[in-house]
Design goal:
cyclin-dependent protein serine/threonine kinase regulator activity, Cyclin/Ssn8, Cyclin A, domain 1, 3 domains, Cyclin-like_sf, 15 helices, flat, mainly alpha, single chain
Length: 445
């Protein structure tokens, strides 16, 4: 049976004491200072990028998890912090561009190291071409993000204690001012290794207990209140002890333990992947701290020998190239004149062929242009004929209209004449009938 879990990245005290940074000769105080410095970078950059607090908290947890498996001497704390912010912004669905992340870290480095504040040039003097410095920084950011995902097995789920604080305080019935204090303590706890030692429920209980002690708010002890929230008293006391030790430390400053150049302001040397693989080899991690000076001297002597051997090989390769060039030049000089003459004849024949082809092309173009002109003339003649035909049709139609109008006028006159004669005859007939009737009724008239 295979069991898979999401939130299983927790280490013991022994594993933290035997971290990869300790194997590379970095003591506990230096490692703690560098961890706090990296978390400060993540918190400040998140504020400048206007990211929510969840993104900054996730970035700090990813930062601690990565350096539990890798050493500060082999991976730059500045580059890893930038990659954690970039990755966490995508995990918490508040993505930011790589350009903006690099510009923010570049400006923070200028402020922290009291350097003249200069803008990070994204493009070079040539139009639409990225500058070499920016392209190197961006490639390093992407490469570091791949290292983060690889070391975590692409399991980047993070559970923060912040979501438990409100529920715990509401259940205990504490005053409202205790909530903000517990929230601040939870944010500060992310700068320590508590997120990789205890579950978020235990850290939340420890934060609530510390806030209650500071405001002198009593919590129920019979039965103990932490048993309801799946915590133990030893874990709560350890959380409080770690927070008290954090507040007793001064402000963290950058300690250069990385072996290469990790500055955002100057990029003089690009990291060698082969050298990085050599650094990450398990043989280097097993070297004791007492043998480090001898190992460094042996490594420097071996490096000098390798450099000398490489220079000798380069000189020999240059000599071989020069000899080959001289041999080729002598061979060209020793060629027969007959072959040169043949080459010249071939070139002349090719030139004549090209000229003939150009002449044929020009003649074909002239023929095409003539054919186009004749087509245009024929089209113009046809259009003139069509126009004349249309005019003749219009004239015939006008004549027909005139004849029709004349015929209509003559028909109306004949009808009027016919009607007038008919009216007259009817009038005379009516008058005669009236006179006859009068004589009938009045015979003596």
């Amino acid at each position: 049976m295979i069991y898979t879990a999401i939130d299983t990245f927790y280490l013991t005290d022994e594993q933290l004491q035997n971290s990869p940074s300790r194997k590379d000769g970095i003591d506990e105080a230096t490692e703690t200072t560098i961890r706090i410095y990296g978390c400060d970078l993540i918190q400040e950059s998140g504020i400048l990028l206007r990211l929510p607090q969840a993104v900054m908290a996730t970035g700090q947890v990813l930062f601690h998890r990565f350096y539990c498996k890798k050493s500060f001497a082999r991976f730059s704390v500045k580059r890893v912090a930038a990659s954690c912010v970039w990755l966490a912004s995508k995990l918490e669905e508040s993505p930011r561009k790589a350009k903006h992340v690099l510009i923010v870290f570049h400006r923070m480095e200028c402020r922290r190291e009291n350097l003249p504040i200069e803008h990070l040039d994204v493009f070079s003097k040539v139009k639409d071409v990225l500058s070499k410095k920016y392209s190197d920084l961006k490639n390093d950011l992407i490469r570091t993000e791949r290292h983060l995902l690889k070391e975590m097995g692409f399991i980047c789920h993070v559970e923060h204690p912040h979501k438990f604080i409100s529920n715990y305080l509401a259940t205990l019935g504490t005053p409202p001012e205790l909530r903000q204090e517990a929230w601040n303590l939870a944010n500060d706890s992310l700068r320590t290794t508590l997120c990789v030692r205890f579950k978020s429920e235990v850290v939340a209980c420890g934060v609530v207990y510390a806030a209650a002690r500071r405001f002198q708010v009593p919590l129920p002890e019979n039965p103990p209140w932490w048993l309801v929230f799946d915590a133990d008293q030893a874990g709560i006391e350890e959380v409080c002890r770690v927070l008290a030790h954090l507040y007793s430390l001064p402000k963290a400053q950058y300690i250069p333990v990385y072996r290469d150049n990790d500055s955002f302001t100057s990029r003089n040397k690009t990291p060698d992947p082969q050298a990085q693989l050599r650094k990450e080899s398990p043989l280097n991690g097993n070297i004791n701290d007492t043998n480090t000076p001898k190992a460094n001297s042996d490594a420097s002597s071996s490096k000098d020998a390798l450099i000398k051997a490489a220079l000798d090989k380069l000189k020999e390769s240059k000599k071989n190239d020069d000899d080959a060039k001289s041999v080729a030049a002598e061979g060209d000089a020793k060629e027969d004149p007959g072959e040169k003459a043949k080459d010249e004849n071939k070139s002349d024949a090719n030139l004549e062929r090209n000229r003939d082809r150009e002449r044929e092309r020009s003649k074909a173009r002239e023929r095409d242009s003539r054919g186009r002109d004749s087509d245009r003339d024929g089209r113009g003649r046809d259009s003139d004929r069509d126009r004349e035909r249309g005019r003749e049709l219009e004239r015939e139609r006008e004549k027909e209209r005139r004849h029709r109008s004349k015929d209509k006028g003559s028909g109306h006159s004949e009808k009027s004449r016919h009607h007038s004669s008919r009216d007259r005859s009817e009038y005379h007939s009516l008058h005669s009938s009236r006179e006859k009737d009068r004589h009938r009724h009045h015979p003596y008239s």
